[in-house]
Amino acid sequence: xxxxxxxxxxxxxxxxxxxxxxxxxxxxxxxxxxxxxxxxxxxxxxxxxxxxxxxxxxxxxxxxxxxxxxxxxxxxxxxxxxxxxxxxxxxxxxxxxxxxxxxxxxxxxxxxxxxxxxxxxxxxxxxxxxxxxxxxxxxxxxxxxxxxxxxxxxxxxxxxxxxxxxxxxxxxxxxxxxxxxxxxxxxxxxxxxxxxxxxxxxxxxxxxxxxxxxxxxxxxxxxxxxxxxxxxxxxxxxxxxxxxxxxxxxxxxxxxxxxxxxxxxxxxxxxxxxxxxxxxxxxxxxxxxxxxxxxxxxxxxxxxxxxxxxxxxxxxxxxxxxxxxxxxx
Length: 329
Ligand SMILES: Cc1cc2nc3c(=O)[nH]c(=O)nc-3n(C[C@H](O)[C@H](O)[C@H](O)COP(=O)(O)O)c2cc1C
Description:
It contains eight helices and 15 strands. It is an alpha+beta fold. The site of flavin mononucleotide (FMN) has 21 residues, from helix 8.
């Protein structure tokens, strides 16, 4: 269904142009200091405004609707709610009938038999990364020793991301982007073998961000072309200290003490002004679509902080799992 986590359980709800959207975090330990101001830094990183982002303007004010009492988490399910303000649904009426190539209009309609809310892409909108970022803020509260560093490495295959995005936007087109996330301070021992591996859970959470097309840890796909003598991280000291980090901080599904390093490929935004072939859901007739509306030219710009949040959510869950195992021997 639509939730993530075993002990730190996150659900996202709402639609892009509905009255509100938010996250529900069940299993958040009690007693954590939490106020609306704590969300601002990460929400600001996701907010539109920079070149290459949507012209839609939202206040994105978090309401702590449940689970916080006198400034601390109460142990009850935690709900962070956001009201929608700047919706312009008219732009989307067409997509309910004529699905945008690359977007979720067709699959949503096929799965929900046309009952899905198409306004602003409904529940499939990148706007749902707003409550994901909020859940990430709560997760980071549980992980005070960790340091996250997230950056857009390239866009459109170029290091000069700004130029690639500006050129695509000027052509009524979009570009993909590559985001790198580095987490320091994990220590060795977080993660489970096989199904709940550190990479497995991090990737599971990160794929919740719309537009993700691939994830690699450490050398990732480049490892397939390497020799063991190149790829192995030789130990240079006690407690697993290594000089290199080809593994990206994980062996056997368990953190090895080096920084967790992953790279995430985000696709180019589907909704573009350029004309593309599609079809009419009602009549089945082929047609052309030049999509109207307000869209990001590169979703990786605002998606980066959402990816960081997804990683934090997975790490919070794994750290609660680790705590639950302490003293079991
Ligand atoms: C922060 C963010 C903003 C997004 N904005 C747009 C947008 O303006 N237009 C668009 O077509 N897709 C946008 N997307 C991507 C779509 O939501 C996504 O492509 C769509 O839901 C289909 O999912 P998929 O690409 O994972 O298959 C955005 C994604 C993120 C993370």
